[in-house]
C-alpha cells in the first residue's frame, strides 16, 4: 500500500540555520510522483515541487533544495539559511501514475512537519 | 490567472444538519479534487471529479458526496453532520495534462457543534 512518513513532527530552528525535512515513502508502483507542499497558518496548501520516479536529479530553487533517492525511498527537503517566513507546516505527498492520462486525483500525504523559524 | 476559490471560508453547523461547500477551479482546469484535513487523520482524499464525472473516490462514508457542473465548479455535500466532520476541507484543481500539478484553494473550515 502507498504510504508517506514524515517522522519529524515539529522542528524549531533559529533564523539563518539550514534545516532538512525528511520524507520516506512506500509504493508498489515503478511509476509515481512525489510532491512537497507548504501550508502557512492561512491554511492554503502551496505547491513547492513535483518529482517523477524516473527523475532522480536533485533540484535547487533559491534557498530550497530537494534530494530524491529511490534506493532509500526518500525525498528530503532542505531549506538553506532559513527565514521567519519559512515557518509553516510542510507536507510530502505521493501519487501513483494514473491508469489513463490526466488523473492524479489521489494524493497520499504524510502527517506533515511543523517548522518554526525563530528570529 | 485567479487561483482556486472556495466558499464559504468558515461555517458552523450543528449535528444532524447538512452542509454544502463550493469550489471554483482555476480557469481551464477540469479536474477538481476534495480533501479533508483533521488534526488526527491529517490530509485525506475524498473524491475527484473530471468533466462532471466522479473519477476517483476515497474511503469516506456515503454521507459525503459531490458533484461537478459543466463550468467545472464543484460542490461537496455532507449530510447528517457528526462532530467528527469538523475539519478543514480543501479543494484542488489541475489541468488535463499528464504531469499537471494540483493547486489548492484556501479551504473551508467547518465546525460541527
Outline of this structure?
Chain A is mostly beta strands and 119 residues long.
Task: Describe what this molecule looks like in 3D.
The complex is a heterodimer of chains A (119) and B (113). With 119 residues, chain A is mainly β. Chain A has strands at residues 3-5, 10-14, 19-21, 24-26, 32-39, 46-52, 59-61, 64-69, 74-79, 88-96, 108-109, 113-118. In chain A, the strands form 3 sheets. In chain A, strands 2, 5, 6, 10, 11 and 12 form a 6-stranded mixed β-sheet that branches. Chain B contains no helices and 11 strands. In chain B, the strands form 2 sheets. In chain B, strands 2, 4, 5, 6, 9, 10 and 11 form a 7-stranded mixed β-sheet that branches. A 4-stranded antiparallel β-sheet of chain B has the order 1-3-8-7, with no helix packed on it. Chain B is globular. The chains are: A mainly beta (119), B mainly beta (113). The interface between A and B is medium-sized, with 26 and 30 residues.
Chart the SSEs and their pairings.
The complex is a heterodimer of chains A (119) and B (113).
Chain A lengths: L2 E3 L4 E5 L4 E3 L2 E3 L5 E8 L6 E7 L6 E3 L2 E6 L4 E6 L8 E9 L11 E2 L3 E6 L1
Parallel strand pairs in A: 2-12
Antiparallel strand pairs in A: 1-4, 3-9, 5-6, 5-10, 7-8, 8-9, 10-11, 10-12
Chain B lengths: L4 E3 L2 E4 L5 E6 L6 E8 L3 E9 L2 E5 L6 E5 L5 E5 L8 E8 L8 E2 L3 E5 L1
Parallel strand pairs in B: 2-11
Antiparallel strand pairs in B: 1-3, 3-8, 4-5, 4-9, 5-6, 7-8, 9-10, 9-11
Amino acid at each position: 500500500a502507498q504510504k508517506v512518513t514524515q517522522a519529524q513532527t515539529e522542528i524549531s530552528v533559529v533564523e539563518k540555520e539550514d534545516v532538512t525535512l525528511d520524507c520516506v515513502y512506500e509504493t508498489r508502483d515503478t511509476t509515481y510522483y512525489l510532491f512537497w507542499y507548504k501550508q502557512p497558518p492561512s491554511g492554503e496548501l502551496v505547491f513547492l515541487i513535483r518529482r517523477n520516479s524516473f527523475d532522480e536529479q536533485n533540484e535547487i530553487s533559491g534557498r530550497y533544495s530537494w534530494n530524491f533517492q529511490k534506493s532509500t525511498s526518500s525525498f528530503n527537503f532542505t531549506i538553506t539559511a532559513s527565514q521567519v517566513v519559512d515557518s509553516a507546516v510542510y507536507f510530502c505527498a505521493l501519487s501513483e501514475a494514473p491508469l489513463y492520462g490526466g488523473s492524479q486525483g489521489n494524493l497520499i500525504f504524510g502527517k506533515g512537519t511543523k517548522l518554526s523559524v525563530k528570529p | 490567472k485567479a487561483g482556486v476559490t472556495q466558499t464559504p471560508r468558515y461555517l458552523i453547523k450543528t449535528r444532524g444538519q447538512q452542509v454544502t461547500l463550493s469550489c471554483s477551479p482555476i480557469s481551464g482546469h477540469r479536474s477538481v479534487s476534495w480533501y479533508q484535513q483533521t488534526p488526527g487523520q491529517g490530509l485525506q482524499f475524498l473524491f475527484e471529479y473530471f468533466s462532471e464525472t466522479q473519477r476517483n473516490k476515497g474511503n469516506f462514508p456515503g454521507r459525503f458526496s459531490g458533484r461537478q457542473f459543466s463550468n467545472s465548479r464543484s460542490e461537496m455535500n455532507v449530510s447528517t453532520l457528526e462532530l467528527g466532520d469538523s475539519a478543514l476541507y480543501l479543494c484542488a484543481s489541475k489541468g488535463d495534462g499528464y504531469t499537471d500539478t494540483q493547486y489548492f484553494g484556501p479551504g473551508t473550515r467547518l465546525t460541527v457543534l
